[in-house]
Amino acid sequence: MNQASAHTAETIEFPTFDAAKTTDQFRVFAEHSAEQSKQAYAKFKSGAETAQKAIESTFETAREASTELSLKSLAAARANAEAGFAHLEALFGARTFSEVIELQTSFVRKAAEQAAVQAKEFQSLTSKAATDVSKPIKDAFESSLSELKLA
């Protein structure tokens, strides 16, 4: 048995440690990790730039919509004020009570019609503004979602 165990010990080879292979493997691992980090950073940077552009576009669109609504509000207020003053002038020129009632009835009917028209215009403008303001963010979100599906 002694001879058999000595013979087995002589035939067993133990792996040797090769520092050059280990260094090469570590270098490959480090290069691969650096490349993955660069790719992740590039994706993050691209996403941040896309988000920034979407936010800037959203704010610009919101500013434009706000200006348009403000101008429309001023025009409506001016038209309503002018109609009110014209009505007052007509009332002061009325000669009979029945003429006053007729003028007042006509004024109230026209004012109600004008209010309905103005309300529709404001509704249309605000709906358009909401759609326009949300579009850049929606597009950026959909783009990011499609990129995630591709990756």
From TrEMBL:
<dbReference type="Pfam" id="PF09361">
    <property type="entry name" value="Phasin_2"/>
</dbReference>
<protein>
    <submittedName>
        <fullName>Phasin</fullName>
    </submittedName>
</protein>
<feature type="domain" description="Phasin">
    <location>
        <begin position="43"/>
        <end position="140"/>
    </location>
</feature>
<dbReference type="InterPro" id="IPR010127">
    <property type="entry name" value="Phasin_subfam-1"/>
</dbReference>
<dbReference type="InterPro" id="IPR010234">
    <property type="entry name" value="Phasin_subfam-2"/>
</dbReference>
<dbReference type="InterPro" id="IPR018968">
    <property type="entry name" value="Phasin"/>
</dbReference>
